[in-house]
Amino acid sequence: MRYAVISDIHSNLESLTAFFEEIKTLDIGKTVCLGDVVGYNANPNECVELIRKNKIQCVMGNHDSRATGIEPVADFNLLAAHAARWTMDALTPENAEFLKTLPRSITVDKKFLAIHGWVDNTDSYIMGIRDAERNFELMRAMDKPVNLCFFGHTHVPLAYVEADGVIGSAAGAPVKIEKGASYLINPGSLGQPRDRDPRASFAVFDAKKSLVTFHRFEYDVHATAEKILAAGLPERLAERLKLGW
Length: 245
Ligand code: ZN
Known about the structure:
The structure is a single chain. By secondary structure, the chain is an alpha/beta fold. It has a single domain, classed as Purple Acid Phosphatase, chain A, domain 2. The protein is built from 8 helices and 12 strands. It has helices spanning 13-22, 44-53, 62-67, 78-90, 93-100, 129-140, 221-230, 235-243, and strands spanning 2-6, 30-33, 57-58, 105-108, 112-115, 148-150, 158-163, 166-170, 175-176, 182-186, 200-206, 211-217. The strands form 2 sheets. A 6-stranded mixed beta sheet has the order 3-2-1-11-12-9. α1 links the parallel β1 (2-6) and β2 (30-33). The longest helix is centred in the middle third of the chain and has 13 residues, at 78-90. It is globular and about 50 Å long. The structure holds zinc ion. Zinc ion (ZN) binds at residues 8, 10, 36, 61, 63, 153, 155.
């Protein structure tokens, strides 16, 4: 089975629609989403409905929990809080209910773990080797330990590898999944990339070949930016999309 792993769609309908076109030639059996379906951009309902319609397995992100009132927006920065409140108003009751019931983590087909932030916390960021080390420990401490985990939240595609007690990180290159080593992999963001590359980002895990590859594609970022302005969302959210930041 070949899995597409996506994250941080953030109500970006143009990139999500382009993603479905993009994977038509990639022989994908299942798509898994690492959370933050909504927030920042202007099409929350359309994005949730595409996730529901395509029966995509999805975990909850910190923006999904704020936009549905599970947790307060008080700890968000001003831009994120503004967008979360706007999203809360915009979501239909059915779509809000769908987001509210998302699990915090999923083990997909007994093959890999899907989370948003940390293994045990939706809101924390894996930012560097020390955070990765803690999360590798959490993966080993699970009832059914896994050696492969996909995480989101930072919007930066990156792989951490732990082998023989040493942890390294790499961006962009394919990652061969070996027995005896552990992997924490971020596919990057579909809807708001933050590595100075505005192209949408996702990963493919080929379970048969034990190989993870990173993918980028262009989408109509100007249309998404226009919608942000038309919706009355902060102008900076439109600008950062074009910069990939
Ligand atoms: Zn996010």
